[in-house]
Amino acid sequence: MAPPTPRLVVPIDLKKKPWEQKSPLHNRWHPQIPPVDEVKVGEIFRVEMVDWTGGAIKDSDSAIDIKSIDLSRVHYISGPIRVVDSDGIAAKPGDLLVVEICNLGPLPGDEWGYTATFDRENGGGFLTDHFPCATKAIWYFEGIYAYSPQIPGVRFPGITHPGLIGTAPSMELLNIWNKREREVEENGIESLKLCEVLHTRPLASLPSTKGCLLGKIQEGTPTWEKIAREAARTIPGRENGGNCDIKNLSRGSKVYLPVFIEGANLSTGDMHFSQGDGEVSFCGAIEMSGFLELKCDIIRGGMREYLTPMGPTPLHVNPIFEIGPVEPRFSEWLVFEGISVDESGKQHYLDASVAYKRAVLNAIDYLSKFGYSKEQMYLLLSCCPCEGRISGIVDSPNAVATLAIPTAIFDQDIRPKSNKVPVGPRIVRKPDVLKCSYDGNLPITKNPGASA
Amino acid sequence: MAPPTPRLVVPIDLKKKPWEQKSPLHNRWHPQIPPVDEVKVGEIFRVEMVDWTGGAIKDSDSAIDIKSIDLSRVHYISGPIRVVDSDGIAAKPGDLLVVEICNLGPLPGDEWGYTATFDRENGGGFLTDHFPCATKAIWYFEGIYAYSPQIPGVRFPGITHPGLIGTAPSMELLNIWNKREREVEENGIESLKLCEVLHTRPLASLPSTKGCLLGKIQEGTPTWEKIAREAARTIPGRENGGNCDIKNLSRGSKVYLPVFIEGANLSTGDMHFSQGDGEVSFCGAIEMSGFLELKCDIIRGGMREYLTPMGPTPLHVNPIFEIGPVEPRFSEWLVFEGISVDESGKQHYLDASVAYKRAVLNAIDYLSKFGYSKEQMYLLLSCCPCEGRISGIVDSPNAVATLAIPTAIFDQDIRPKSNKVPVGPRIVRKPDVLKCSYDGNLPITKNPGASA
Amino acid sequence: MAPPTPRLVVPIDLKKKPWEQKSPLHNRWHPQIPPVDEVKVGEIFRVEMVDWTGGAIKDSDSAIDIKSIDLSRVHYISGPIRVVDSDGIAAKPGDLLVVEICNLGPLPGDEWGYTATFDRENGGGFLTDHFPCATKAIWYFEGIYAYSPQIPGVRFPGITHPGLIGTAPSMELLNIWNKREREVEENGIESLKLCEVLHTRPLASLPSTKGCLLGKIQEGTPTWEKIAREAARTIPGRENGGNCDIKNLSRGSKVYLPVFIEGANLSTGDMHFSQGDGEVSFCGAIEMSGFLELKCDIIRGGMREYLTPMGPTPLHVNPIFEIGPVEPRFSEWLVFEGISVDESGKQHYLDASVAYKRAVLNAIDYLSKFGYSKEQMYLLLSCCPCEGRISGIVDSPNAVATLAIPTAIFDQDIRPKSNKVPVGPRIVRKPDVLKCSYDGNLPITKNPGASA
Amino acid sequence: MAPPTPRLVVPIDLKKKPWEQKSPLHNRWHPQIPPVDEVKVGEIFRVEMVDWTGGAIKDSDSAIDIKSIDLSRVHYISGPIRVVDSDGIAAKPGDLLVVEICNLGPLPGDEWGYTATFDRENGGGFLTDHFPCATKAIWYFEGIYAYSPQIPGVRFPGITHPGLIGTAPSMELLNIWNKREREVEENGIESLKLCEVLHTRPLASLPSTKGCLLGKIQEGTPTWEKIAREAARTIPGRENGGNCDIKNLSRGSKVYLPVFIEGANLSTGDMHFSQGDGEVSFCGAIEMSGFLELKCDIIRGGMREYLTPMGPTPLHVNPIFEIGPVEPRFSEWLVFEGISVDESGKQHYLDASVAYKRAVLNAIDYLSKFGYSKEQMYLLLSCCPCEGRISGIVDSPNAVATLAIPTAIFDQDIRPKSNKVPVGPRIVRKPDVLKCSYDGNLPITKNPGASA
């Protein structure tokens, strides 16, 4: 009996562009994107993936690549992969596709990643009203650990995971998506509650032929034109899973995905070496290329048995995830709180998004007292293994959200100190030249800890 | 040297009403509520507390007490306690008060609690549009474990914590609270996004003399009248901590509270044997009477050193919490996801509250397939040690929230099963008479698992 | 339905001597010691217990009480408790008695304990050849935490547990014990491998009427004389459980005890606030009085179904334990190793006891470099939540044992430092007068850190 | 700046024999085995390694390869690797070499391993008197998980680690080893306490030219002859680390190794996908080929600063290990106990080896009641992530050892069941043909669960 070495179903050649890969990538959801391969249940297979920008971001000192990125040409994902049972019969609409993540990691020879904030005129982020400029931090990996020359004094093990994993939607589901997202796009003003400056962020990204990549379907053909005009962007998580950004979906986890079309058509991508809950800076995980080793199972009729539609049609479901015992664990946490009162002092009604924004801002400000700039901490909280919780959602008018940070990721004790306890001198940081920079006319951000 | 047996600074006699206790309780925030005692830093002291309703809810079969509760007469808290340093000098505005939770638990002889959902006309809850009727489950404690005759087949260790802990506000801060909450109360319609039926929930609870209890200040006196008209309700968490409902604030944790008035005036109450993140049913933890053993420290000038105001005044701060290594840990979790598309199919823009509501509804529906009614699961998810996370808050238009449930709290395997794995018979539940009941003309909810 | 407040079946009055307690204690194992009470399966009941010396050791500066203790008058345990099923039918030989530890802790008003090393002429300990003198450290409790004026700079949460829990032996089993232990006592020289100085330690403690306490059986009567001459000492763990000193047997754990006589006759005592694996100093846990809240079940015929005799008779079995999810967890550990080469350089063959002795000695020496005396660290490793592992038991000639210490219990970073990392100044310790003392003519041990 | 892709300093070609590898391997400890490469502190480098037998054991149905293995030709390790600081100055005797394990795993394309018991006439093991025949189980890896066709119903994540890591001894230390091990070999009878049948196990493996591999030193040369006659076997762990078999030495751990010769000469090998504490079956981990990604640091003078000699010379030291937060964690454990009374009923004096043997035997017998043969469980307990603890080492005459097994590794509930709880049917196992076999004339072991 041969050992079950994973079969490579989607190889990536890092020297090639996303559209030049042998197994063609895609960056849209559509039922008619043809599968690139087929796997059997129980089989271990390997899927490689480019980083979410397909190599547009460089291991460099400048954030100019972040500032000027074309956000229509991103989120390249690997697949779709057709899944069949041991008799060769494909997964069918109404089944549940079980995907177990047996292993994952960076691609050999490409052990680095980046965390960035977009310019508020080009993408923005959760705190774009506070941090309007493009910044970038590079992370290098030492096995399971990551460190950044831009954020010295921090090192942590990654809870590595794919940011995006999902099945293909049916046409019916795709139409639902396009309809409801068009409504929010067209009817957006009333939704603008987080902060006025958010108006520069797109409310939704509707189908667009610009930058569209559809796997085996050749660009410019009539089929391509038709699909490109219908296919959903991959940015939000939806009923099919997709860009869920669940940071604990690491080794040993399982995903139970609803199947909407024959074969399930599993796609995955947007690998994260590590991410904080919320991925607040938007380009916020430690983004990297990588690989997954997966094993699938099919639960026949599982959608009806286990999922309950929550909406007008049977398609309004969500996947289920199972987290196992193998992730890094931390025992001490410092926890920051936010309530749904915004920075102007205005009261919002049980708004967890506002409360979480406040918790993140509180944490950034606190940590910046330990020798860091706020930009550094915004990047850090976006990508380190911090936990964002909804603590209270009923005590009107305040939602309470919390952000818990494992203290062990810092090389100094970041807890508040009683004046009576003698402590050692604050550690003097000696960072490299700070790449985490504003571009153009804006001055280079200095690390306050460095100049002190 | 004598062992440091905790000094009892607030005793509770469970046979007395909240307003009859020897150390008078209060249920409002106001700087002029006089301290009931004084503690020194480093001293271990014990604070006892009534359950948040002060005994209004009974260990009984009927939810009639929940349905008819007077919500103006609740949230009785113990204190205020004045804190001084080892030289007898009081904590001062601008200091940080460090409160360490050395131990806590139920009051001896009162080892039980309850979880309930309010009637939508009287309090409601996060899912009141789905669960409009009053229900109640009683929990009995076996040491660190809780079980409920109303929700058979579930037993879990509590991460016991005080739902409410905070310092007294200054008049300036109190005025800020009253102003901003009045605005949301008066200007409420535009805030109503969660669901239309929410309109029956109060948007904010403004100061009111009705049901007001002010410690040593005698009801009906002019001083009482003045303070009662100004004093803030204790329902929401705010800058002073208060009703934060942080479910991990258990043994070994620390709270760093801002000090707004001389002496700090620490108050605490609303003990929870256990709570899920969000406390979704509103009366949602396992509510009980209890005790805390606390130790305080003062960080002089700590507000300026460690907290950053986030708003128009230096008072717009939030406490910091520190979680230690001694809480129950679970290694396997089943995770439900929600996106910010509501039950009608409408798309909301990055709204974590809507996304969390969907995640909770998804979990309730899933678990109800294992022999439970949905009402039972709503109560369970409100009080068991489940984790509510903000997983994605940037991938417009969908916020992604997750609810993670430790699988070990069930006596059956609740994971989805592949059709190919032979499993044992679904466990037949034999619950007691189900007390978790609709009142009035509504029929008693049957446990579907029982009749199957 | 009444809440299940634990019924107090064994009360302790700390102002009384062990032989004066209302529910009479015992300090021997014998089938004819009569039960003090009866409990039903499913019932929650409370058992209180004196510390293992019954109050002989004082919260004082001197170790004279340790030096001069009468070791024949110790190990007072509470019970026996007869266990019956819901029909009132007693547990029977061949059953398994399931004992769940629902809660436990120190007795209110007695929140302190002690760790000690005996004089080598009176008890000794694992390292008595290195540490021949009596020493004592007092520990005070702050809720779940313990600290000692004698070992400043250390504070940790206790994994509190009963050191001793067991069922009564049958006469047949008792005879087996007495026979085999008499053989080792009489035939002892060849067993003396650990170290020559060990010869001052008793090889076994055979039945003796001296200091014997037998519960309800009055001293001096013929029955007492007979039983006292037969009854086994309680020092070693044996087939009935007994003094197992399993340090993780805390809240939420279960013990599956074999039943040898009708009613099972459960006894328990020797409460430990905390203990390290091995309890190396012999009086080595944080010894205290305390209480247990227990719940029993009976597995009829469970001995035959679950336990396999390992010896000449069906009685040669051992209990099984189940550890739950509620103990304190630590995420970083410093691990010391020992091999089975003793301090003289002599090679022993796969001897885990010698290897563990080396590991403990290595740890003591290492930690003493951080401002402590070796006596302090010997006491600490005996009682803090450190883990003693048998890592390798097959690679002849060396057994490898390890001792893992959670780094978080120290207020300084105890890891080895690279010369290149700038570190803060070594913390200056300001201990109280050091009670951890040699008696008689030996000088008081100074804490090196204090005088530095 | 280039990302720090690990430099490959020891490559392995699995199609070649150990003595044919490009970077020559060795299987002895000697200061004069020349380094195969040099690394700088801070550099990430990759070391590949054969399995400990160098490919002698096959992925096959038969245990004949185990039965007939030549144990003089084993334990091939990679290195030595010379370590220098950033100025190129080598590690010196008296320094501490810090080795951080950044990552590790099986070699790509070779994702399988084996666990075996040797024949008692050829190697034996901890329980060779109970299990005298050669058996073998093959394990296949699915990413971080392992499963075995020979032990169906079990699957667990590996805490992967190198069984062997160490520095080269100086001649002085080597002489100490040879002298003391010769003494135990020559003076062995009195050491034979575990069990009489152990006499067939070698007491020590003294230097021997047979099967000796010495890296770059060519076999048959005078230098080879001299070194081969002096060089220590690699089986036991010793002062230099070596074959410590510390099962938690996984990703994120650090080893602090004493340096005895210039350059430190680090060697490593004997990769384990997973191992139980004690590695009881001797060939007991899941043995495999693999790779390590390492990073070194040098603490100048660290031996004197941090290690304390425990013996006649300054060389009698042991390494220190640091375990990090990234290993798999389990929350429920079933714990088996053993006391130092052997299977014949004979009492031993505080003998942890005997106690652990009893604990392991108890566990094997217990687990065999769940559809397994005892041979299967002996193999399982040798390689699954179970914890072997020294619980009590002072309560004469009984040492108490415990073996804790994480319940989650089984696909059935292995806890004892109360007769009153209805449980599902015992799972029917359908193993593959059982390879776990006695060879020669002995019958194939049947899995009792399979034939039931």
UniProtKB/TrEMBL annotation, chains A, B, C, D:
Matching InterPro entries: FmdA_AmdA, FormamaseFmdA
Domain of life: Eukaryota
A molecular function (GO) term: hydrolase activity, acting on carbon-nitrogen (but not peptide) bonds, in linear amides
Pfam families (alphabetical): FmdA_AmdA
UniProt-recorded name of the protein: FmdA_AmdA domain-containing protein
